[in-house]
Specification:
319 residues; alpha/beta; six-stranded mixed beta sheet; 7 helices; 17 strands; 20% helix
Length: 319
C-alpha cells in the first residue's frame, strides 16, 4: 500500500475526483476519495467492490460486503507474484471474496502452460502448486474457473449467484485465449446468474484500446443478449485504458448472432414495465500508456482513473 499512502502524505498534482451514477436498483461509484469512500447505504443493500488487472500490485481498497477480482492477479504468473496478491487479498476485510484468472496468470491455464511456459519463464513453475495457492478454502477466497457459485453476503441475506470465466479473445497467444472460431464454445457455457465475471469485455462495451479499436468479444455480447434474464453486474478488465462503468439496457434490438425467441418475447412483453439492464464494469486497476501519467506524475495502481469500482445493489433487485 506504500504507493497510495505516500500519495496522501505529501502534496501531489494527483487528485481523486468524484464520479457516481444511479440505476433502478443500484448506485455505482467509479471515482471517490479513498480515505473517505461513499458510505454504505444500509442493511437492505449489498456493496460489491470490483478489482481487476492488479498485476501483483497492492493498494488501498474500500471496505464492502463482496470483493470481486476479474483476473490478471499477477505480472507474469510466477508463484512469488501470485503469493503477493493472495496475501494482500486475504488481508482485506470483505466477508466474501471471489476471483478469477486472466491472460497473465499463465500456470492456471495448465494445458497451455505445459507447451508455452518457456516463452515467458526460464524455470517452469509447478501448476499444481500455484493452483493450491489460489484455489484453497483456507484462503477465505473463492476461485472460479468456468464455474458457478452461490453465496450469502450476510447472515440470513439474499443468495447471490456468480459465474467466473478467465477467457478472452486471442491476444498474442497468451493464457486463456480463444480464436473467433472457438469463442462460441467458451461463452455458451455461461449460465444466467446475478453476477458475471469474465477477464475480457464484451464487444463495444468498455473495450476501446489506446489505438481506438474495439477488442471485446462479439460472441460474448451476443450470448448475453440472448438471455431472458441477463446479469445484474458484469465485471471484467483486460483493457486497462477502458476502465469505468456504464449501464447497458437490453432490448429486443440488441445484437445477437441468432436471436433467442424467448428472450425477445420476454423483453417485448407489454407487461414488462422496464427492460433488463446490466451494470457493466471494466475494473482494471493498472494504468497504461499515456494514461499512467498526470502532469508528469506516475499514477499508481488503483490511483486516480483506475480506482476499485463500488457498486451498491438493493438486495431486492431482480434480473
Amino acid at each position: 500500500m506504500t504507493s497510495l499512502v505516500s500519495l496522501f502524505s505529501r502534496p501531489s498534482p494527483l487528485q481523486f475526483g468524484k464520479e457516481s451514477f444511479n440505476t433502478r436498483n443500484a448506485a455505482v461509484h467509479t471515482a471517490y476519495d479513498p480515505r473517505h469512500p461513499p458510505p454504505h447505504p444500509g442493511p437492505l443493500w449489498t456493496r460489491f467492490v470490483c478489482l481487476s488487472d492488479t498485476h501483483s500490485e497492492t493498494f488501498q481498497v474500500p471496505p464492502g460486503d463482496v470483493l470481486l477480482h476479474s483476473g490478471d492477479l499477477s505480472r507474469l504468473g510466477t508463484y512469488d507474484q501470485l503469493k503477493i496478491t493472495m496475501d494482500w487479498l486475504r488481508s482485506l476485510p470483505h466477508p466474501v471474496k471471489i476471483i478469477i484468472a486472466g491472460n497473465h496468470d499463465f500456470p492456471l491455464h495448465e494445458s497451455w502452460y505445459e507447451t508455452q511456459y518457456h516463452v515467458f519463464h526460464r524455470t517452469k513453475e509447478i501448476p499444481s502448486r500455484i493452483r493450491e495457492l489460489v484455489d484453497n478454502e483456507s484462503n477465505g477466497i473463492v476461485y472460479l474457473q468456468d464455474q458457478k457459485h452461490t453465496f450469502q453476503a450476510k447472515d440470513g441475506g439474499r443468495e447471490w449467484s456468480v459465474y467466473g470465466s478467465p477467457w478472452q479473445p486471442w491476444f498474442h497467444g497468451w493464457a486463456f485465449n480463444y480464436t473467433p472460431e472457438e469463442a462460441q464454445a467458451h461463452v455458451s457455457l455461461i449460465p444466467e446468474v446475478d453476477i458475471l465475471m469474465t477477464h475480457g469485455p464484451p464487444s463495444t462495451i468498455l473495450d476501446t484500446t489506446l489505438t481506438n479499436q474495439h477488442v471485446g468479444c462479439p460472441e460474448l455480447l451476443a450470448h448475453l443478449s440472448r438471455m431472458p434474464k441477463p446479469p445484474l453486474i458484469h465485471c471484467f478488465g483486460h483493457i486497462h485504458e477502458a476502465h469505468g462503468a456504464i449501464v447497458h439496457v437490453w432490448d429486443a434490438n440488441d445484437q445477437a448472432t441468432e436471436p433467442n425467441q424467448f428472450a425477445t418475447e420476454e423483453r417485448s412483453n407489454p407487461g414488462d414495465k422496464q427492460p433488463s439492464e446490466t451494470i457493466m464494469v471494466n475494473a482494471a486497476n493498472q494504468p497504461i500508456g499515456h494514461m499512467a501519467f498526470s502532469r508528469g506524475v506516475h499514477i499508481p495502481c488503483g490511483g486516480p482513473g483506475f480506482q476499485p469500482v463500488i457498486i451498491d445493489v438493493l438486495d431486492s433487485a431482480q434480473r
